[in-house]
Specification:
The structure holds 2 protein chains of 2 kinds. Chain A is mainly alpha-helical. Chain A contains 12 helices and no strands. By secondary structure, chain B is an alpha+beta fold. Chain B has 2 domains: 229 residues, 3-Layer(aba) Sandwich (Rossmann fold); 117 residues, OB fold (Dihydrolipoamide Acetyltransferase, E2P). The chains are: A mainly alpha, B alpha+beta. At the A-B interface, helix 8 and helix 9 of A face strand 6 and helix 3 of B.
Chain lengths: 281, 365
Amino acid sequence: MRMDHYTLLQKIGIYLGIGLFLMFVLLPFLEMFRTSLSPMSHLFHAPYEIWNSEMSFQAYRDMWDKVPLLGRYIWNSIYIASMVTALSMIIITPAAYAYARLEFPLKALSLGAFLSINMFAGAVLLIPLYRLLNSLHLLNTYWAMIIPGIAFLIPTGIWLLKGYLEKIPRELEEAAYIDGASRVYTLRRVVLPLAVPGLIVVGTSVFIGAYAQQYLFAITFNQVKELQPLPAGLNQFIGYQSVEWNQMMAAALTGVLPVMAVFFFLQKYLVAGLTAGAVKE
Amino acid sequence: MAPLQLQTVTKSFGAAQVLIGIDLAIHDKEFVVFVGPSGCGKSTLLRIIAGLDEATSGQIIIDGTDVSRLAPVDRGISMVFQSYALYPHLSVYENIAFPLRVQRLPEAEVKAKVARAADILQLTDKLPLKPGQLSGGQRQRVAIGRSIVRNPKVFLFDEPLSNLDAALRGDMRVELSGLHRDLSATMIYVTHDQVEAMTMAHRIVVLNAGHVEQFGTPMELYHHPATRFVATFIGQPNMNLVPATVLGTDAGGLAVELDGGPRLVLPVEPGAARSGDRVEVGIRPEHATLGDGIAMKVRVLERLGGVAITYGIMSSGQRFCAALHGDAAVAEGDTISVGVNPADCHVFGASGAVLRRLKAPVLAA
């Protein structure tokens, strides 16, 4: 019997499980989309209506007038997340290589310390971080959102990439060393080209992390409207009298669209990277 | 090209001593094989010669220069790894060119050297391919190609054939021997396969538990094993070791009585052996023939055509293996008697050291 052969009952069970899981994950998005299509007058209608005759993409047009800087916010989000990703990778890559291959004092201890950093929620450190950024005169700049982002994402990145680099056969590096290649040359010509799928996985995970954590840093460390990322910018749909829920949802969906497109293309690397080396080829 | 010397090389990992004072002198253009069971330290020794591991103490001297503290590339060595260690993202051409790229040689020179290596190894039409598109034997040749473009003084091979199937291994053995002749370089080759050692080596280093058991030509090892370990390691099937008691010594050699077997007078130097001492008599299966001598009950019979490997058990419970003639009239369950020529027997004292044979075949130089 093949490993992937299931009885009908098992299949039904599996699909029910997947369906339930997907429902939890996807229903909020469906609700967002439904909300973005509905005119405000229908949103609080009782009984709940999945579909109404006045649904349209009007909110997707109106949102740009309601919040004129919306385009800027979307751009800021991508800019901040990209900067965090790029700078993090510059630090993560050599660090992960060192942890994967070199022996140095306090190696295990520092790796453990990195993990424990992840146990502190960013919120706990907001006040010390505020004071630090204030002393460095970085408040109300992009850096106020980029630097804490990097600091919180490096530890996980090192752990992820270290695992990937450890799976590259050591003999490849030894062969290069025998032939006179320096560590840096070997890293550049041998290790990094082979680690591309791993780098993509780590880069993606850092990007997601950077995108998700922006809100907290943005509302705390930045008061300049023009520099706000999308999650903070969405606050402007909340007016004194009413909240433009449909436009807010439309803006949120529009904001994540470019990111989702990139993920769609990187998907095959992600899956390959996450399972790399799990079995002998 | 280069003679290589090892002087009291030791290696410890913490408290564990992996190599215990290795002294070797390897001649120019010699093909030397390090052989031994897994964990004997042969790969560690090779890695120390290569410069991948550092010896705890001792010197490595190549061509009269102490290279113990030099980087591999400055030692004038190159190495072929067990897994080939090819760069999967580079073409065969770039794999072979890698050491030259490190040296930043001009493109024309790289091209000429790679072309020459590819020509020697019959890889010319494979140069644009990636290693993943090659067979095991071809990958092995690419790995060799990468090691020869630099013209090293000493080639190091770490079990290079162990990933190949049996038929290909035989072909590659012949190719490697041919390559050694063509390049006329010093080669050191690590294997656990005694057939590779016997067929390819000028001289064999038998390693066991971190020390050299014996260093000699294949025929020396076969006819004059210095220790019990070498005797049982070299030769297929393994040598029988039958416990025996010394009855006495005289000019003709040593008189012994095999446990559960006959009395024999063996032409060996008695040395310190005295009447009543316990010894082991080594008898190679291929030296046993049907005839008067050791009685045994046949348990398993393997007829290979030319020979019939007969596994039996003596009355003392001792196992005994005889490689009889292919058509020998024996069957499983029979009780048979096999005879041996006393001149073919080896005698090992309690320490495992051999008593020198007096009538062994003269070795060809």
